[in-house]
Amino acid sequence: MLATSVALTGISVAAVGPIVFVALAAPQLATRVAGSQGAAVVPAALMGAVLLIAADIVARLLPPPSQLPVGVVTGGLGGIYLV
C-alpha cells in the first residue's frame, strides 16, 4: 500500500506540479471559516479542494497562449496569502 500511494503521489505531482500552497493555507483558512479550535480535518480537506478548483478555473480562463499550470497559479495565490 505504501509503494502504491507513493507511486500515485508521484504521478499526480508529475502531471500537475507541486501544489505546496494548498497544504500550507487550507488548514488555516478552514479553521478561520469554520471557527473551530484544534484539528479540523474535514473542513481543511474541503478548503483544499475549493482552492484547487478555483486555481484550476483561473488557469483555464487565461487565453490559450498564456495558460499557466495550476501549480503556478497556486504559488501566486500562496505568495499573496503569505504576504
UniProtKB/TrEMBL annotation:
Keywords: Cell membrane, Membrane, Transmembrane, Transmembrane helix, Transport. The keyword Nucleotidyltransferase does not apply. Pfam families: FecCD. GO terms for molecular function: transmembrane transporter activity. GO terms for cellular component: plasma membrane. It comes from the Bacteria. The chain crosses the membrane at residues 6-26, 38-59. One of its GO terms (biological process) is siderophore-iron import into cell. SUPFAM superfamilies: ABC transporter involved in vitamin B12 uptake, BtuC. It is found in: Cell membrane. It is a multi-pass membrane protein. Belongs to the binding-protein-dependent transport system permease family. FecCD subfamily. This is FecCD transport family protein.
